[in-house]
């Protein structure tokens, strides 16, 4: 399910051109837009022609609290109009030009492209870079999806329990920089607040049955299974009680020692239900998963580049056993295991399913933010390791991708989802003024 947004739409025109045809085209566009998923539209129904029209439209839309503005150049028009709207609406703008109609009597009818050129130049020279341009008959769905990401980040509340993992300086964030760049707010909680969170025994029992139905738990003791069940209930209740958009967890070294098991298996279960849970206190990683979810991608999760094979040209996306259990390949034995932390490291163990992948890391560094994007493909492999993992190939040599990560000092976690989610995120970066690493 995509993140909902609210978008204003105006159609600009001038009576020296075929504004009647522009009005007919605009009527059809309005009807077509109503079918777009999870968008509340704020239409200015009449063509905006004069300065007075522009002022009236801007005043009306200023109170709607929209997330974006579509300015259709129905024909060429006054340059004042977009600037009047932008002055009142501090939101990203889509400048939409229409393909020219067949000539009628030797006269150009719309001159829409020139109107888009005028608007783009006026906005750029006024210092605005948050505009996108299209020349086509249908709306740019990727631009709408970019607004979803921006809104989801802006409205997010990211919790962190404990701190980042010991020594993982590269996933630390500066909270005010994060807020300034995205609008996301961070709240800190102690590990003990989750460990001691009260839950009903009935919920623990329900989680115990769910775990046993989902995983092979034959290697766990009754104590370990009870601890994972109890933690699943606690994390779920804590997450919702605090109204969190995501939760980053200092999952080692203290967690297993103080609670009795690591959180990996519980995180695998809860992520399959749509919770965004980030390992090792990685707040930017959580933000990356929020962005993927806003696009409608299901169950994003964090992975490590744990292995590269330059001869066979693949990478291993691995983590210690936390990937959402619904992404299991359906072939291997999906199990829980205790292979680390002296028997307290209860993790999920399975190979992830094959399919097209999109990789994202929204990453802070040197006082700013940037975005790492890649397309990849998970291919079948045998279950050879503990933890959760997949064998991955890229549309370029894996060495080139690894060098992008290393040469740009990217953090060692990225969010991965099934499906293709690239261009909308490129537009997010353009609107935000972030560098894209791809």
Automatic annotation (TrEMBL):
InterPro entries associated with the record: Fucose_isomerase_N/cen_sf
GO molecular-function terms, A-Z: isomerase activity
Keyword terms, alphabetized: Carbohydrate metabolism, Isomerase
The UniProt record lists the keyword Isomerase: yes
Top-rank taxon, per record: Bacteria
PANTHER family: FUCOSE ISOMERASE, L-FUCOSE ISOMERASE C-TERMINAL DOMAIN-CONTAINING PROTEIN
Protein name per its UniProtKB record: Fucose isomerase
Organism, as annotated: Sphaerochaeta associata
Organism ancestry: Bacteria, Pseudomonadati, Spirochaetota, Spirochaetia, Spirochaetales
């Amino acid at each position: 399910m995509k993140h909902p947004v609210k978008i204003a739409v105006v159609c600009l025109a001038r009576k020296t051109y075929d504004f009647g045809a522009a009005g007919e085209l605009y009527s059809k566009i309005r009807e077509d837009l109503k079918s777009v998923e999870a968008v509340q539209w704020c239409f200015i129904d009449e063509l905006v022609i004069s300065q007075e029209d522009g002022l009236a439209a801007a005043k009306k839309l200023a109170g709607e609290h929209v997330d974006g503005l579509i300015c259709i150049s129905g024909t060429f028009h006054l340059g004042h109009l977009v600037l009047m709207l932008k002055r009142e609406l501090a939101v990203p703008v889509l400048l939409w030009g229409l393909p020219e109609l067949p000539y009628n009597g030797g006269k150009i009818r719309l001159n829409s492209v020139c109107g888009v050129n005028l608007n783009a130049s006026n906005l750029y020279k006024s210092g605005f870079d948050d505009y996108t341009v299209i020349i086509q008959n249908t709306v740019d769905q990727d631009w709408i999806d970019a607004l979803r990401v921006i809104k989801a980040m802006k409205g997010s509340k990211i919790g962190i329990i404990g701190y980042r993992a010991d020594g993982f300086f590269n996933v630390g964030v500066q909270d005010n920089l994060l807020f300034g760049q995205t609008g996301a707010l961070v709240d800190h909680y102690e590990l003990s607040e989750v460990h001691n969170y009260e839950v009903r025994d009935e919920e623990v029992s329900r989680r115990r049955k769910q775990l046993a139905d989902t995983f092979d738990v034959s290697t766990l003791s009754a104590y370990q299974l009870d601890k994972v069940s109890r933690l699943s209930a606690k994390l779920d209740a804590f997450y919702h009680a605090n109204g969190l958009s995501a939760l980053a967890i200092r999952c080692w070294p203290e967690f297993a020692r103080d609670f009795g098991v690591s959180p990996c298996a519980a995180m695998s279960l809860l992520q399959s239900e749509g919770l965004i849970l980030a390992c090792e206190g990685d707040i930017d990683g959580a933000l990356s998963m929020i962005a993927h979810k806003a696009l409608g991608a299901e169950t994003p999760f964090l992975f490590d580049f744990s292995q590269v094979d330059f001869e066979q040209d693949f990478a291993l996306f691995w983590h210690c056993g936390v990937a959402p259990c619904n992404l299991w390949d359906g072939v291997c034995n999906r199990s829980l295991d205790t292979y680390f932390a002296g028997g307290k490291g209860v993790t999920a163990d399975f190979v992830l399913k094959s399919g097209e992948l999109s990789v994202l890391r929204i990453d802070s560094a040197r006082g700013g933010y940037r975005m790492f994007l890649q397309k990849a493909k998970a291919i079948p492999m045998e279950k050879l390791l503990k933890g959760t993992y997949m064998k991955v190939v890229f549309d370029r040599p894996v060495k080139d991708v690894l060098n992008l990560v290393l040469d740009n000092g990217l953090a060692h976690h990225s969010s991965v989802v099934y499906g293709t989610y690239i261009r909308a995120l490129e537009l997010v970066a353009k609107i935000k003024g972030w560098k894209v690493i791809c």
